[in-house]
Amino acid sequence: MQQGFGFRAGGQPRELRGPGQPAGSSPGKLPSRGPGWGSCLPRGVQGCQPTPWIPGQPPGPSSSKVQGRRVAGVWGSCMAGVWDSGLSQESGSVEQISLHCAEGSLEWLYPAGALRLSLSPRLPTSTAAKGKSPRQVTTCIKPSSTFRGAQIYLERNGILELLLSETDASLRPRVRCFSWLPHEKVALFLQSTLHQDISRRIAAFRYELRGDWNSRLSLPSRACRPCNDTEILMAICTSDFVIRGNIRTVTNDVEMRESIINVSAMRIHRQKFTLFQPVGKSSKSTGSIHTLLQCGVKPGPGSFLFTGWLHFGEAWLSCAPRYKDFRHIYEDAHQAHENPCEVLLD
Questions:
Q1: Mean pLDDT lowest for which of 88-102, 237-251, 265-279, 310-324?
Q2: What mean pLDDT is predicted for residues 166-181?
Q3: What is the Cα gyration radius of the chain?
Q4: Which residues, in sequence order, are CB contacts of 36 under 8 Å at separation 6+?
Q5: Would the pLDDT of 166 be above 70?
Q6: pTM here?
Q7: DSSP string of 184-219?
Q8: Is residue 328 helix, strand or coil?
Q9: Which of 108, 170, 225, 308 could form a disulfide with 318 if both were Cys (CB 3.0 to 4.6 A apart)?
Q10: Residues forming CATH 2.40.50.120 domain(s) in the chain
């Protein structure tokens, strides 16, 4: 860590862990069955209901007191909430927390001193089942609209990099993402800011951690690159939603650096969450899909196969080939017995 902050460590790190797991034990890997990364839809700070765990694995969800800090969450990939009050923290101290969930939120009331959040995510189901680590992990944070009293740094191998200043957070809450390798020591470092008054301040944000495949949508350098045939076939099998539809309109949000694609769905092949819903008495469903503004998406004729992921409660685009092109790719892979999963074509 860089010099000049003048903080001292505030005791041993606190871990967010499931019931029955002894303190200091390794979080291990996710089972081959049970919730994978992003398998639960966030339903507020109390978390969400996971799919059943296999025998011998810790159950979820849990809610417990960890040395004065209220911790609520689900073991594995579901939401974890942390409430911490700076009123009980010594000025100049650093409280340390270890986060093992793939999604979560944190609220820091009356920030004082600093918090150090060690990122120790569990492996996604796909890589855990193969006994392999992901080549890289992508972390995204989204500050609340009322984020006040602190600033967030990325700590990578002891070096601090400013991710979010208090001034930036007072604007519209924009998502910040960064990638890191599994062997790197990475943490989020929250430093309280000085204020003359004692008005109520809350430094709150949500976070997501993603493995190899679904980290693609979070990185600007990758999000606009067209998917190759292999990526399209994998997207059909692993995405949160697979929708055949037409582009109705495209709305650009310059301030948020996003484009919102309004889609009329012709067929819903898969949606893990209710993203597309029928409108009125019509049998057609409509929904919105987000992508980066720099990708330059424009309305066009014809039908597309939209695939993507749930990202902070919103649908984000991954691959979107024209449907006729997808049919050719899928049929060629099917004849060569190289398709990773079966898809019912029209």
A1: 88-102
A2: 81
A3: 21
A4: 30, 77, 124, 125, 126
A5: yes
A6: 0.64
A7: S-EEEEEEE---SS----EEEEEEEEE-TGGGGGG-
A8: helix
A9: 308
A10: 215-335
For 239-261, what is each residue's pLDDT tens digit?
Answer: 899 999 999 999 999 888 889 99
Strands 80-85, 103-109: parallel, antiparallel or unpaired by DSSP?
parallel
Here the tokens at position 188 are 């989020």
Q: With H, G, I as helix, E, B as strand and everything else as coil, classify residue 160.
A: strand
Q: Give the CA distances from residue 301 to residues 176, 249, 322, in Å, rounded to whole numbers and listed in that order.
A: 33, 11, 10
CB atoms within 10 A of CB 248: 12
Alpha helices in 263-341 (DSSP H): 323-335
CATH class of 215-335: mainly beta
Q: List, as one string, the DSSP characters of 90-153.
A: -TTEEEEEEE--SEEEEEEES--SEEEEEE-PPPPHHHHHHT---S-EEEEEEE-TTB-SEEEE
Q: Give the H/E segment covering residue 289.
A: strand 285-292
